[in-house]
Protein: Nucleoid-associated protein
Amino acid sequence: MLGNMQNLFDTVKKAQMVVQVEAVKVQKELAVAEFDGYCEGELIKVTLSGNQQPVRTEITEAAMELGPEKLSLLVTEAYKDAHQKSVQAMKEKMNDLAQSLGMPPGLGGGFK
Structure:
C-alpha cells in the first residue's frame, strides 16, 4: 500500500515539474510577442507585449490635429484593442498548454 502511495506521489511530483517548465516556456513566448491595437480609422497604434507591457505608441499627424480630448480617447481605444488581443493570445496559449498536458476541457485554469 505504501509503495503505491509513493508511486502516486512521484508521478504527481513529476507532473508538477512538467507543468512548471511548460508554463515558464509559455511566459517567455508571451514576453517576446507583440500585439498591435488600433483606434477607429487606425490613427493611433499601440503595441503591447504578450504580458501586457507597453512597448510603443504611434500617433499620426491626423490624430494630433483632433485635439487633446479626442486624442486621449483614441489612445485609450487603441490600448484596449491591443490589450484584448494580448489577453486572447494568453488564453489560447494556456488552453493549448492544458490540452498538451492531457487536461480535460474546462480544467485549464478557467481560460476560455
